[in-house]
Fold these 3 entries.
Entry 1:
Amino acid sequence: MIQAILVFNNHGKPRLVRFYQRFPEEIQQQIIRETFHLVLKRDDNICNFLEGGRLRTRRLSGHGSRAQPLCRMWDLPGLGQEPMSPASAGGLSTTAPPGKTPIHPLLGDLHHYCFFRQYSSVSLIGGSDYKLIYRHYATLYFVFCVDSSESELGILDLIQVFVETLDKCFENVCELDLIFHMDKVHYILQEVVMGGMVLETNMNEIVAQIEAQNRLEKSEGGLSAAPARAVSAVKNINLPEMPRNINIGDLNIKVPNLSQFV
Amino acid sequence: MALKMVKGSIDRMFDKNLQDLVRGIRNHKEDEAKYISQCIDEIKQELKQDNIAVKANAVCKLTYLQMLGYDISWAAFNIIEVMSASKFTFKRIGYLAASQCFHEGTDVIMLTTNQIRKDLSSPSQYDTGVALTGLSCFVTPDLARDLANDIMTLMSHTKPYIRKKAVLIMYKVFLKYPESLRPAFPRLKEKLEDPDPGVQSAAVNVICELARRNPKNYLSLAPLFFKLMTSSTNNWVLIKIIKLFGALTPLEPRLGKKLIEPLTNLIHSTSAMSLLYECVNTVIAVLISLSSGMPNHSASIQLCVQKLRILIEDSDQNLKYLGLLAMSKILRTHPKSVQAHKDLVLQCLDDKDESIRLRALDLLYGMVSKKNLMEIVKKLMTHVDKAEGTTYRDELLTKIIDICSQSNYQHITNFEWYISILVELTRLEGTRHGHLIAAQMLDVAIRVKAIRRFAVSQMSALLDSAHLVASSTQRSGICEVLYAAAWICGEFSEHLQEPQQTLEAMLRPKVTTLPGHIQAVYVQNVVKLYAAILQQKEQAADAQAAQEVTQLLVERLPQFVQSADLEAQERASCILQLVKHVQKLQARDVPVAEEVSALFAGELNPVAPKAQKKVPVPEGLDLDAWINEPLSDSESEDEKPKAIFHDEEPRHAKQRPPEADEQELARRREARKQEQANNPFYIKSSPSPQKRYQDAPGVDHIPVVQIDLSVPLKVPGMPMSDQYVKLEEERRHRQRLEKDKRKRKKRERERRGARRHTSLHTESDEDITPAQRVDIVTEEMPENALPSDEDDKDPNDPYRALDIDLDKPLADSEKLPVQKHRDTETSKSPERQDVTVVEKKSKKPKKKEKKQKEKEREKKKKKEAEKGVDLDFWLSTTPPAATPAPLPPGFLQEEPGVNAAVTAPKEEPRGEEQDAGEDAEQDLEKKPSEQKKKKHKKDKGERSKDKKRPKKRAPPREGDAEPVQNGALREEPLPPMSSYSLLAENSYIKMTYDVQGSLQKDSQVTVSMVLENQSSSFLKNMELNVLDSLNARLARPEGSSVHDGVPVPFQLPPGISNEAQFVFTIQSIVTAQKLKGTLSFIAKNDEGSTHEKLDFKLHFTCTSYLVTTPCYRLDVPTDGSALFPYL
């Protein structure tokens, strides 16, 4: 299962946010921020998997439950009770390998101790089954958070499929396309991944479905009908900032022909 | 109205669309929040308008704001409005917004049910698609329950686009509504062979997700997947299937054997790295599951390791990373083959990529042996020094500790070296793993008795230089090691060379800056040291020195009394009083050392962390019972306190002499020891025998092992672990020489003149003897602790609900809730019924018929196809009874094809497993026939109206496989009616029935009766009456007599059937029953109404009491003549 798909730019501005598991908005933003910081640290020539840096998988089930810090966490017997800064916990989880039993009556159960530390930290990172798999194109990061049922290399290729599809649908996609047409990007994504599961990997099929839906939309007159569009064009003329936007616009995402894994 | 419309559209011209919003936000960088709140106000206005386009536009903007972190749940209702727009453009916007912000807690979500149902059945495939996509993100248990049937229908939609979406969403439905899994599963299974590759891939996807969580329920699908694997060319599908097999093989090693060959072929042939990688992974899983036996798999391992080496050596960091990841899996079972690539792993430790370094570290964990531990750790230590960034350094630190401490310090030959390593690690700045180091120090010191002297010397040095540790890095937690150091020095103070010096170190004013819990340990252990020093001084008859020490304590302890930490404070003030008293005694020249050290007599043993939980509750002890009756409120309020004070006050007033106290204490301690020794439930102080892994002698008479003299006993200052490496080498060399000498002597003595081997040095792990005799005391467990690991299971696992046996036949009660004319359902949602009930009524029977036929045809086709490939596959993997994993229950019944094959003469494909042995073969024959017998019995019991007939005919049938096979072919996976047998029939009505044992009440059975109106009359006032016997009684409504009938809770229009359930109370389950009964009813038609009766005999066989779910039966045709087609 894919848990989340995040697209943000080199400054961490979200361009597409798609969680397949419920998180309240502020937690979502936090996840985006932390993921961004994790990914940003990494050079382009190192591997595209982040293990240990993972989305928290704690289930926020039920009725709008929020992440509540466990207030009992310091009641445990044991050592250091120094509060941890979220930053220090944000890194890699330190789960002891199986079979290593904790140790001394004085120390209590070290495992539990560590567990609660992780749990309590504001960090959204933790959990052993999840991986971040990402790719960096020009100004954008495409990050998929997946569990162990997905093939790592497969997801890398899926990202490539997604980006290539974007490229086809927007004709030389650039960050601005994603900025101004977030809804369309979502519709494209919906043809690739549905509810956290891979729906289609054949690019021609994906593009065909998108185009069919766009035609349908056009036949209905689209969201902004002609008069409104005219007005918005007039509005655009008056905008002094218009050229600036265009300048930014030429930063195309160059979709490289990457080695295919699948 | 028209005016309003015009006005609306004029207003619209000034509305922002999404692009305007985005642009606006970009132009208001400095006051973004303000601008957005302004926009939200505008959006709220727009949402109030009637124009759906305006609303849709507003919702679209909200979706954008949601991405920026704004909560838009307040607009949930408007989103639903947009979802229900008729235009696809708007609908899509609505569903997108819903998928981004709806969740189980959204209260308006229940309003969507009908809208979604409408969209699902929309003629436009994109409406349906968009609804499915949206639903996949916000499906709730209620939605899942209400829509499961609609979605299931969509799984056979004509458009593959819809089919694949419907298949995928089923997984979400299963998760939210596990009851739907069994009814939907047969169709899901069909989709595995869908002509469209997308649908097929989706089905594989869903089943893989399901199987990953509860693999054992999906073992029976293995042949199907196997076929797919060998036939499919879609790499995406292949990857999924291969991953799935990886999850299945641990449960069924025979499957693994079957897989090895095709997987190896794939490994050799594929050019796709992802597929190669997954194949290798699954081969590894197979090899792990086969790890015992099967010696000829070394080739496969070699192949895997070799391919992984190629991955690791690749310049693509991703491949490198994954190669290491997979390598670590092989390592677990075949460490030898991986150890050959140690060079590669060590090389990866220097990689610029941290993730790769971490993976390499993981590998190292399994690569260490006694021989190379020191070397590897030395290398890691240099990495620790070089590492930038605390995270990686911390990881290194934990890895070093993990590596060294793994499997009870198996690889450590020299614990002095290890202690030195730990002490060196304390010099790491900014690590947050002080507690880990501390735990190791404590563990080693406690469990390795021989090392205590050395440990104590090191710890006292550490305490001496505590300022180094504590001052600079106090916040980071490295000061935790002082906790361990203090405790070790105190507890094993007898080994201290200079106890006085250590004592002084522990009483420095600086100590009060340490965290409270460490101070507390300091205080406690100061007294232990003090006791040791007293003893020493008194033995030396140095009263002067003893008094000085006491004086020191009296002077220094007050600093702890002022500690902010309660624990430290309390202990300090207690101990201060004690010391003051000792001082008084010392002034009178009373020897006190004995008594003070009695405070700390006895030894602490490590206790397993789970020990407390595992102590069984003694027989006859009810922990929930009150020991005393709880006092009533009034009593406890006024009387009790009084009594307490009466008792207590004199005690406080009379200051008892502390000697008496101490003596008393010692006496009590002795008494307690006695009692504990006699108490079988107390954890004894000696480790339980089965847990001891060495012949560790009892605690009391441990010979203090002579430490090898080549190792310096005391290292001044901070120790250097490096010197141990050299020393260790020398030591080993010496040992080797000695051993050689001995061997040579022996050999020469034995066969002088014979040609001597040039003894090549293949030093194996076993040859290396540890420098210290290591007596690792294992952790204690209560004697009769249960060795269960159940406590590891998470009871809240959401996937547990999906742990459903799919091979069991469907019970009638398990059908998905479909809207139809039923009493139970009408109450739930009356308005929903209005919409669909009409068409359902007319469509249903026809559809079902068609479906059944279709399915049957498909089944036959499938079976024919399967027989070729799968039968031999399954045959070669089914028989040996010795294998641990049992076949899935109901396996034989489920897969009719297999059933037939197993019973069929074992001629053709048995070739390779002939060697499995005679007994296996016998087993093969026994098993199915037993199964068959049981099944037949059931059949007989339930089906027969006339018992004698089947009994007579049964024996010949048992021997003859043919009819069974055919019968099996007719089996129907979805048997809504199949378990019902005919009860009685006349021109008006037909009754079929089924008996089920009740799960809730064991003395009851439920008879489900399906009544079908076969006439053109309207049947009403139906009443069922049964002549009770001694053994079986019909449960009647309260207050009615035994002769009253039970009314049937419905009426039957012409051609309609419905089901009623009647409960019978059963006295004895060993007697079969025949109950006579009557159904009376009024048939009303155009000519008038008549009162009619239908007699029947109800059969309860003994088996009907036993079986709680209906027996899986032949598809009983509706007319009684075909009831026994093969008799």
Note: Confidence is low (pLDDT under 50) at residues 53-126, 238-250 of chain A.
Entry 2:
Amino acid sequence: MNYFPDEVIEHVFHFVNSNKDRNSISLVCKLWYRIERFSRSRVLVGNCYAITPERVIARFPCLKSLFLKGKPHFADFNLVPQDWGGYVYPWIKCLEKNRTNLEELRLKRMIVTDDSLELVAKSFSNFKSLVLVSCEGFTTDGLAAIAANCRFLRELDLQENEIEDHRGQWLNCFSESCTSLVALNFACLKGDINLAALERLVARSPNLKSLRLNRSVPVETLHRILVQAPQLVDIGVGSFVCDPESETFLKLTALLQKRHSIRSLSGFFEMTLYCAPAIYPLFSNLISLNLSYAPAFPGKELIKILQLCGKLQKLWVLDCIGDKGLEIVAYSCKELQELRVFPSDPDGDGNATFVTEEGLVAISSGCPKLNSLLYFCAQMTNAALITVARNCPNFIRFRLCILDPTKPDAATLQPLDEGFGAIVQACKGLRRLSISGHLTDQVFQYIGMHAKNLEMLSVAFAGGSDKGMLHVLNGCEKLNKLEIRDCPYGDGALLNNVRKYETMRSLWMSSCNISMGGCRMLAKSMPRLNVEVINENGDLNRDGDDDQLVDKLFVYRTLAGPRTDAPDFVWTL
Amino acid sequence: MASVDLHLDATELRLGLPGTSSPEIEGRKGPVGRSIKRVCGELDDGFDPKDASAVREDVPRPSKTQVVGWPPVRSYRKNCFRLNKLEGESGCGVLVKVSMDGAPYLRKIDLMTYKGYSDLLDDLQDMFKFKVGEYSERDGYNGSEFVPTYEDKDGDWMLVGDVPWNMFTGACKRLRIMKRSDDRRP
């Protein structure tokens, strides 16, 4: 390759899109590093504190698309205190200062302020795509700024963010000349929107393929939008409440019978059961169905619908579906690749319905293409997991959450070591694993021995000893993220293989047996790690004894040194 | 197998740090072994609710001990469901209050447990010991001093029986069995 002129090499690199591959390319030789860095336009920074924005921009001056991740994953479950960090503003400021031609910004678990959004809107004239996942800190005013200023906006995708809704007219702020929208998702907004503005926006967006509405959008508006936009492929229904004898309902029913191009359906935040038949014609064409926010679907309706979904590849449902419902899915949805079953009663204080190991076994035997699973269930057995492993060796993501997290095998009362062991042994391509239930060191021995492609492991309430954690650290060569809560691992486990942490993005440990002394030792021996002790309750004394127990620890490799925006209760040792 | 020490207290769920012995468990433990009544709504098409997997006498309910961050569900999703609960939208059942003029206290029923109006009215008549008259579309209920009415989503008081059953279950917020002397309609 070195005999080719640079332009030829650059042209070849143009076809390499995956970040992993590009990272590998850049390690081959200095020449390739140089060529690669000028040709990379898509950059992923998996931990916003691993590197400074200045260095990223210096290395990739042609960057157009930036994907940043902030808080540790367990922040999604309230384990990380509110003001821990993950602010996007410094990144945007830096991009603006360097006059980067930013077109796409994707953020996950970050604090985004209205100021940040305004800065994005005003600094990048070619800005096309904003995707915010599980972020917070902004209001609809920030959205208004984006709408008003980004004349070529193609995508505004808000997924499960906490957005303060000022019930303003942010949708009105899209200028009349903005006709480039391809995807708009505001399902997570809680407030009302200007329906007329929405309809006008849809009418002038001929490329709009994906539209996800929030619960305030009534079915009359949905009907008008569908008439206006026959090209829509992905729809998130807001409210589906109407009088089944009304003209709207009749017209909608007739319209939906002809919409064969709709491939993805979600939403239904509220629903009149009597109106369900209107949407039946859609199901046989669906590839993706998310009913996990639609608690009003009773089992009977759900079963009728699922029987129609012959082409379904992705299904998100609530556990109201029951094992019997999952059997119907197994029978009807032979193309299924991804299944997520969420708890319908996450606070656990009602008459919850749930699924068990039977539902999972049924799915595994009926859906051989299944490769991604998130399953909240009441119980599990080793026998079931062994069967699942045999039926579905193609799992890439396998996440099992037993509602009672230390529950053993429901039939034998044994730990679930053998079951998960079978999964890691059979699924050679497994990249992500979450385990729960009564577990001992044995399961980690299996994981260390077999899960050679594992990148992310989540462990909660496991039993055993330090050996468990060591099996994983020493055995899982590709381990990138390890998050542990409420397990008996102590300093011995933490300090046994400290070099490992530099090969990983991050380690989270909470409610384990780690001491201040252990953390100090780690920080001392590995200067290129940030060892953050999170003193949420104020129990710890920073200069105090080594034997103080550390409740929350977050360790990550970084080239940026200790961060300057840490709050008082976060100590980088 | 029975002789194996399962080290249950080592795996005991608690909020304290491992090694400490003061469990600060908030919330309450629910009764273990409580059976789940039914999946959701009525189930037909050859599917007998009695053998529904949700009806398991032998499965202990998940413990009600509240642990921070478990089950691991995003707060956004949890908040959505809390919102639904507050708005009274339960996924599986339409609970409404029933009052009768002159009765000392109200009752609560689940509309989803009835197949239709006759089923509902039979049960109400049984519960409150009264009789409704004959229903006709034109004249309403004739032949009794008691009239079943309901409050719909718009806040209007309507006569039970005028709209299709499924529409009624979606619209009904509460029931009131009126005594004819209160009925101000002509």
Note: DSSP finds three helices and seven strands in chain B.
Entry 3:
Amino acid sequence: MASFTASHVSFSAVPCSFKQNQVSNSRIASLSFSGKGFSSRKLPVLRFRVACAAKPETVNKVIEIVKKQLALPEDRDVSGESTFATLGADSLDTVEIVMGLEEEFGISVEEESAQSIATVQDAADLIEKLLEK
Amino acid sequence: MKLHCFERTFFHSSSSLTPIQLPSPMETHLWYVKPSEVKSGSLLNQYLDILPPCERENVLQMRGEELRKSALLARALVRTTIARYQINSHSNPRSLKFRKNLHGKPEVQWQFRDDQHPPPLHFNISHTTSLVACGVTTNAQIGIDVEEKHRSIKHNILSFARRYFSKHEVQFLAAISDPQVQRMEFIKLWTLKEAYVKALGKGFSGAPFKTFTIRFKGVMEGGFITLEDLSPKASEIVVDSFDDPADLTSNWQFSLLELANSHYAAICTEKHGAGSGKRNAPGKLTVWKTVPFLEDECVSGTAAVKIICGVQ
């Protein structure tokens, strides 16, 4: 589920939010302000992430590594929201992907952290967190 | 010899499942499906039909037809398999409920008033796009893993092993000069390690791969014997755990097989009544190839099941 915070809205990591098919995704809640002081038109549907979402370059690099590991066709649509499971990664693929990320970014990922990675975005966020250290 | 194994093939009208008795405590049942052999659209719809909405949604979310099919077969296999055992007369695969334990391992949520004594059936599944398997035991934790024999590893095997496997296992792999053989031994080792972690049910981080060694009794220290060299009856696969001395190797037994000429399958089950130093008879394994609702074939003792190590 998307989580919301007023403090940080990141648009850069989720350009795909504005695509038609994302708008129809029932997981995204729509925000609309109505009532005094606001116009009655609905705001566009936005995805909010808690502060420090990963940079798009990081997300794209993760996507590249995932596509290579899973031998996905070039036209397969993979985004930050994609889960490894639905892309067909089994445990060995996941471990290989994590190892690929470790090599690409020069980081070390502990098993506990690796186990919590479900989506491409999770991986990108974890990478940036580890790079900050 | 079990009676039903004399008749190798059963054909049924659709929607019927051959009932079967639970395995005895020293026995394991293994059921597998090959997605390539399930071609009927109406059969696949039947499988979809026995799933609850959330499982159906999970299946349909898989990206790609092959992935959807193997995900569907995995759920259909586990439901129909458990339904066969007719626990407390429940034989409807649709009515089974599942939940995850504390660490995320799937288990059956038995629907009985007296929840104090849940039935002793344990199961574990594993799937690739080309084979889906479900193992069943009575009163024993079980973990299974299947991998394609010819699966490609993107990384250098030894780099991968140094990062994730134990020192002993790295030595074992490093001693193999032929890269093809090394890759296959790596895959066998991977399936055994996965099966162990799944049997423990603590999740990948509950028993990090580096903290235990799987080895084959009979291998000289620092030397190398491929599993093909070992006689299945004479050898044993054992686990040494560094982190958890309470997790004795004598608690777990392993089997390693080649299924349908295409896959390695590792099975790890809990041993009971194992006295220290006592040599236990290897457990019995019965294997069925199935297309749920359509056809079951007992393939134990045929070319479809090659025992590499561990069981009779």
Note: The first strand of chain B starts at residue 9 and ends at 11.
